[in-house]
Each structure stands twice: as structure tokens, then as C-alpha cells.
């Protein structure tokens, strides 16, 4: 397994994890179950740890893919910028989740505010995860780029010239 493969494996964990954590947290709110809400906090903490792994495997992945045909330095740079924002958001979400878990176990009245902050942070993290995931996929997968139709038409033109 090379650095690019490792990066691909771990990058999906925080993206999917934050969505699952959000759904579990909503379930906890609707069912009024503090155990379910606490489970969501654990998922967010795990997702934040996975975001650390994803962030620190990015440089090695870049070194492998930057010289591949069709890979744009502009796309890599855009992904790096979005990854830094997502990474920061996930660290904040994980930290607030950890603090909320601790004050919840101490039976503090402030825990309900912590859960609300975690819910709001998770929503913004989900939005950012969409952008960072898409920008990462666009680096190698031309078919998902916004200019994919133009690329298909260019390729079709090039194939017509071969006849």
C-alpha cells in the first residue's frame, strides 16, 4: 500500500463519520436518549482522529499523483485549501464533542448546550466534507469535474480525427 492508497482509505472515514454521527445525534434528540447522543459524540471524536490521519497522509499522496497525466496542480491546491478548513473544523468538532462528553458524564447542566453546539458544528462539517471530498475526487477522476462534458467532447473530437 503506497501513500496515495493509504490517503484514499483514511479520507473516507471522517467524511462518512461526520454524516453518521450527525444522523445518530439526531436520532438521540428525537428519541430523547442520552446514550444515543453520547454515542454520536464518540463517532465525532473517532472521525476527528481519522481526519488527522487523512490530513497527514495527504502530502505523500500528492507526491505520487502530481506527475500523473491529466492531474492538475490547480486541482491539488484547491483540495489542499479545502482540506485544511475541513481538518480544522473536524478538530473543533472532535474537541467540543470530547468536552461535551466529559461534562455530560459529570451531569452538568451545560451538557445540553454542548450537544447543541456539536449539532451545529456537525452540520457545517458535513457541508465542508462535501466540498473537500469532491475536490479530492476531481484530482484523478475527470468524469466528476464540472468541465467533464467539455473533456468528453474534446476526446470525441480527437477520436474522430483518428479515422
UniProtKB/TrEMBL annotation:
| Pfam families recorded | DUF2231
Would the keyword Transmembrane be found if you checked this record's keyword annotation? Answer: yes
InterPro entries, per the entry? DUF2231_TM
Residues that span the membrane, as ranges:
6-26, 38-58, 85-103, 110-128
What residue stretches are annotated with the DUF2231 domain? 6-140
The name of this protein is DUF2231 domain-containing protein
Keyword NADP included in the entry's annotation: no
**Keywords on this record?**
Membrane, Transmembrane, Transmembrane helix
